[in-house]
Amino acid sequence: MHAVILSLLLAGLLLIAALAAYAWHLWRRVWARQQAQEEARQERQERLGGDLNILASSLLDEQLPLIEGAIRIKVLLDNYDSDLSNDSRCQVFHLLFEATTDVPTHAAWKALDKEQRRRFEKRFNELELQHKAAARTAARWLLDDGLKRTQPNA
User: Fold this and answer.
1) What is the predicted pLDDT for the residue at 154?
2) Which of 7, 55, 74, 107 could disulfide-pair with 97, CB 3.0 to 4.6 Å?
3) Separation CA 10–CA 7 (nearest Å)
4) What gap in Å lies between CA 43 and CA 148, rounded to an integer?
């Protein structure tokens, strides 16, 4: 009788040890996956921050049309840091984005007739006259201050 109990006890202990080893293996995989996800998130943030830097600089250097730059900056800011995107100093990007949501893009833009394009371009010019200074100020703030606050170890 003692041999049976001892065998069952030993089998139980071996089963517990095997399950513990398997649980440890699974936890290590979870930790490795979490670490990989965090590294990917950090790389994404660095890439978005670099892209925002380039766009803001290009907007200030007038290498990028104001409307296009504001739209691109707004979209990247939303993905980079929602708090930064919602900062009052960045609202001009949201305003220009909202003012142009009905503008067709890509193939739809090319399909417009000249009169329709001219109407949109006229509106772009009006928006640029109204908001150019604010957009440039916001881009300058992003470069000088905004993006630096959200960088790790900054």
Assistant:
1) 41
2) 74
3) 5
4) 16
Look at residues 99, 152, 105 and name the one whose alpha carbon lies nearest to residue 124.
Answer: 99
Residues in the chain: 154
Mean pLDDT of the chain: 93
> In this predicted model, what pLDDT tens digit does every residue of 83-110 receive, in sequence order?
999 999 999 999 999 999 999 988 989 8
First vs last C-alpha separation in the chain: 70
Of 128, 67, 132, 69, whose CA–CA distance to 100 is shortest? 67
Return the closest-CA partner of residue 140 out of 67, 37, 58, 76. Answer: 58
Report how far residue 14's alpha carbon sits from residue 139's, in angstroms, rounded to the nearest whole number: 64
- Report the interhelical angle of 114-141 vs 66-80 (nearest 10°): 50
Please name the residues in contact with 68: beta carbons below 8 A apart, sequence gap of 6 or more. none
Verdict on whether the full-model pTM lies above 0.70: yes
